[in-house]
TrEMBL record:
Belongs to the AzlC family. The chain crosses the membrane at residues 20-42, 54-83, 132-154, 166-185, 192-208. It is a multi-pass membrane protein. InterPro entries: Brnchd-chn_aa_trnsp_permease. This is AzlC family ABC transporter permease. The keyword Zinc does not apply. It is found in: Cell membrane. Its main location: membrane.
Length: 242
């Protein structure tokens, strides 16, 4: 075994280290969810249970809002599944990098948007025998931070925002800012840049036109179509990692 291999940190420790920047978005947003869930009539333990079992970011906010509004169960379930339909796109993009293991079906519960973006860039760069450990560390850190933030928001969210009003102003922007950070490296590719800019432009156009409910799904569909229609190979600044 080479000296370079011997000095590598354990895979799960590498996953933990790589996922630490995600906490800047996960913790404020999960605190916000815990606070909103209790304000909607859910108990603190119910909010934590939703974050533990559902663990779906935006879908959780929709879930508690629809339940609090008295929406029928079939509609709540249907809308939650619709928002999470993006995982149908995630799965085939990450599957080539998943090594054989019986643990992957369980670990896929931790496949969030941010973990997918991180795994999509990290997994191809590491040896196959390190991928399972890396994903385990990254996914568990993100999951536990989301659960912990939810508990904190449910128990002490009102006190935190009363004592530090700026926290209440920052929380709504934490997750969008995190997405921007994850997407920024992709702008070195012409293919990715066209897809991202077309999604942004269409979303803004639809919002200005008053079609706010359809802006995100239509923009995402158009961006995905643009990505697959553009011929791969052309890059910005010579980066060919698409």
């Amino acid at each position: 075994m080479s000296q370079a291999t011997q000095t590598l940190p354990r895979p799960w420790l590498s996953g933990l280290r790589d996922a630490i920047p995600l906490l800047g978005g996960y913790v404020p947003v999960s605190i916000s969810f815990g606070l909103i869930a209790t304000q909607a009539g859910f108990g603190a333990w119910e909010a934590v249970l939703i974050s533990t079992l559902l663990y779906a970011g935006a879908a959780q906010f929709l879930f508690v809002g629809m339940v609090a509004a008295g929406s029928p169960l079939w509609l709540v379930v249907g809308m939650t599944l619709l928002i999470n339909l993006r995982h149908v796109v995630y799965a085939p993009n990450i599957a080539p990098w998943l090594t054989t293991s019986r643990w992957w079906p369980w670990l896929m519960h931790g496949l969030t948007d941010q973990i997918f973006a991180l795994a999509h860039s990290r997994l191809p760069q590491m040896p196959a025998d390190r991928r399972l450990g890396w994903f385990t560390g990254a996914a568990l850190l993100a999951w536990f931070s989301w659960i912990g933030g939810t508990a904190l928001g449910a128990v002490a969210g009102e006190e935190l925002t009363r004592r530090w009003p700026l926290l209440g102003e920052v929380m709504p922007f934490a997750m969008p800012a995190l997405f921007v950070v994850l997407l920024a490296p992709r702008f070195t590719s012409r293919r990715w840049s066209l897809a991202l800019f077309s999604s942004i432009a269409i979303a803004l156009l639809l919002n200005v036109s008053g079609l706010t409910n359809t802006a995100i799904p239509l923009a995402a569909a158009c961006g995905a179509a643009c990505f697959y229609l553009v011929r791969p190979g052309a890059t910005v600044r010579g980066d060919r990692n698409e």
